[in-house]
Predict the 3D structure of the following.
Amino acid sequence: MLMWSATSGGNESTSLLKSKSQTYKNRKGILLLDENHPQYNILASLRLGIKNVIESSHLHAEKSLLPENYNAIMDLELTTEKGQTYQFISYANAVFIKMREAIGVSEEIYLQSLCTLGLPYWEFISNTKSGQEFYISNDRCFFIKSDTRYYVQAFLSFLGDYIDHMIKYPHNLLTKILGLYSVIIPGQKQMYFIVMQNICFPDSEIDERFDLKGCSAARYEKPPPPGSSYVHVLMDINFKHTILDIGKEKAAWLIRQLEIDCDFLAELGLQDYSLVIGIGKKIAVQNQNNGCHDMDTDSIDSEVVSLCSSEENSMKAMPLFSFYQPLEGSGNTRELTNLPNSIHTIEGTHKHYYIGIVDFFMRYECLQWGRRIKKNILFCHGDHSTIPPRKYSNRIVNFLKKHLV
């Protein structure tokens, strides 16, 4: 059980950490995280930090965002129940509060999902080779991803552009990032964590998951054996014969939105992101109509911002992950269902599809130039994931077009 206490990492021997890591090395799938996990202490410290940030933010919540909010750092010194002092940092806290409001995630829900005592996180041990660690809130609404300082700084550098894109295209496919934090425990390396929406939520009815980059090199994953309970992520070659039967109108909307989102990422010089698709059983839905809430409006750099803060949301057991009513002039909107996570859910003829773009922090800079040359030599062709942003954008759009009906 994950409790608030977090012991000092500096007092824990290196050999013990290695022993714990080895014990967990060969585990697979989605598993409850227990106190013997090597990252137990750091995650307990993360939870305590988020709890303190949310509770203190209520005292001085921003009514409107200002340019300085995007660079703001909330630095707390916290003490665990065992007396260990550590540093917790929340980046651009006011911006992410507004982001959560905009998609129907109240602070009460966010606190309940991530910080409730006695509800341990899940660990998602992916078969993909991203290098990051993934955890999921107990209710599976939120992903918690560890990342490097380089990628965190890269995201913060275009956070304003990201928010502007959310406003202009409220039904976009980009994953909704809802919090950015770091934990510094004496004697340990500083850890960075990104809290984001779980695109494949609710996941109880999902049969297949794909991580797609629109290329073939090293993009095959051996499917799990029949009856396997592991959550296995398949890739582009596995997707070869898959057709998304969503009808012409929805297909046209999807391709147009994918073009818009990928063009946005290309303009920022980003590539090597993934299009995540989950395929699951069809669920009975009804379209959203009555009961919509008007969004508040605030000013950021003379831009009009759409914010939705509904008292009703705080009473719901789970976040809706939905923009209720886009502002006039918003681009490429569509009719949403009343399902949770309706932004990323598309109803097909026989299936439900969960679609979103993740891992969009990689800039095409010197390191990627070198990797491109290396991969060209290794694979003897250029059909791999390290190509210039504009080519990457066009390729992933054309890839999906071939799989729509």
